[in-house]
Amino acid sequence: MASLNGSPASPAALQALALTNYGHFTTMKVEDGGVRGLALHLARLVADCRAVFGAELDPEWVRECVRGEAGGRAGAFMVRVTVFDPELDLTAPDRAGRPGVLVTTRPAAGTADRPLPALRVQRLPFHRDTPSVKHVALFGQLRLRRAARLAGFDDVLFAGADGRVSEGCTWNVGFVDEAGAVVWPEAEVLAGTTMRLLRAAGAGHVTAPVTDARLRAMRAAFATSTGLGVRALAAVDDVAFRADDPVIGALRESYAAVPLDRL
Q1: Model confidence over 123-149: pLDDT tens digits?
Q2: Taking phi first (over 0 means left), then psi (-120 to 50 degrees means alpha), and beta for anything else, what does residue 110 get?
Q3: Model pTM?
């Protein structure tokens, strides 16, 4: 199901989004009517709406739209809120400025007591367009995810022109060094909600450039996102990591302890 501004989304509106591919979004995991980091998701939508459309977005209106589509459903599932202008003219995008709120849902993967298996990822060079905005233009990321999977990996990990690791296709990456500190790459990345919640909740987190040499010296690595939670990396290219590292287990517990905000 999909709703636009609280009503069923028309095929014409969805076609406009598909053909112009201009907008921004956030994805949140709803668990029995609650969301971890709901305020961060809403703040992201408000800030990105200013950046993409030069318009103000009412966060309470977004919550109402989400409740209309997802309210009352039990269990865990994913909700994506996409902000776009259904009347955007491809030849005159400067006229865009009346964004609508599209709400869609999909099943959630994994459970708190049964984490997803560790990922094997391939490093490929990539720099996100406007990395501070969670925009809908995902062609570059998905093209490289496809290339990594065709090469036998589970997913892709991006590195800049300088070789420094930045982020995954649709997730942030973190590492555990030999001393047990959590290391987040110093790079231009989309700061994910899960990463921000973990950094706010835990001590011993640092930000530093992750070069090839530093990556090879790490004892563990993990991916974070709303959909994944905290998921271990088994390997980056030919570099193997401990999927059962206790720091990763502690991060999962820390994330699970973040209170749910009611929609």
Answers
A1: 999 999 999 999 999 999 999 999 999
A2: left
A3: 0.94
Q: What is the Cα–Cα distance from 221 to 199, expressed in whole angstroms? A: 15
CA distance 167 to 159: 7
Contact assessment for residue 138 and residue 190, using Cβ atoms and an 8 Å cutoff: no
In this prediction, what percent of the chain has a pLDDT beyond 70?
A: 98
Query: Which among 43, 41, 46 has a CA at the least distance from the CA of 29?
Result: 41
pLDDT in tens, 155-187: 999 999 999 999 999 999 999 999 999 999 999
CA 122 to chain centre: 19
| Residue labelled with tokens 């112009």 | 20
| Closest among 106, 88, 130 to 27, alpha carbons compared | 106
